[in-house]
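Lab channel / #folding
Pinned by the channel admin:
"Please post every new chain as: sequence first, then the structure tokens as a reply. Keep commentary short and put observations after the output so the thread stays searchable."

First post following the new format, from NK:
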Amino acid sequence: MQKVIAASRKEDGCLEYAYAEDILDPGLIHIAECWVSQEAFDEHFASSHIAEWCGSWKNLGICDRKLSIFQVGEPQAIPLRAQVKIA
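Reply from TO:
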């Protein structure tokens, strides 16, 4: 996965690319990606490192995936409520 993450982060148009295992559902991996455009995202999916990764799924034990695309506007800071204290 480190190879795929590193290659993806180097792609033009990649703003964020991260993997995390769900702490309540071991083995479930969440992937968060942020791209500058749909075109950059499409180019990412057509890249050789993604093709190589998809070809290795059987050996990695990956048997299913669910992809969702969410489109949002410009990022905005979320203010913390006054009653929330960070120690």
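NK: The longest helix spans residues 2-10.
TO: also worth noting, The CA atoms of residues 41 and 77 lie 24 Å apart.
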